[in-house]
Amino acid sequence: MTTTPISAMARTRLNGAFAATILAAALLCNVSDLRAESGSMADFPFVIHCKFKDTYHAFYASRLSPDGTATYVASDRIAGTISLSGEAKAIGSNEGAGSCAGKTLKELRASGQAFDLKR
User: What is the pTM for the complete model shown?
Assistant: First the structure.
C-alpha cells in the first residue's frame, strides 16, 4: 500500500488549525486568571451581542487592561470597550454606533445582550 504525501499547503493548514485549537483551549482555561486593578475577567460577560448596521454581531471578550477596561472584538474588524462602572463605547470610526453603545454592563445583562460563562 502506498501513501500519498501531504502537500505543504495542507500541512500548513493542519498546523494552523492545531495551533488555533490549542490557543483557544489555553485562553478558555485561563480566562479567570487574568486580573486587573478594577476587576477580573470573571466580572465581565464572555460575549455581548449588538446590532450594528442592520446586522447582529457577537463581540467576544478579548483583553482586560490594568485600568479595568475590557475590550470586545467581533468579525469585520469592529470592537468596543466597557468598564465595570462605565458605558460601552465603539472603537474607531464606528464610534457611537450600534445597539450596545452607551449601555452599562447592568443594562446589557438586563436586555439579554450579555452572556456569562458558567462553571
Answer: 0.66
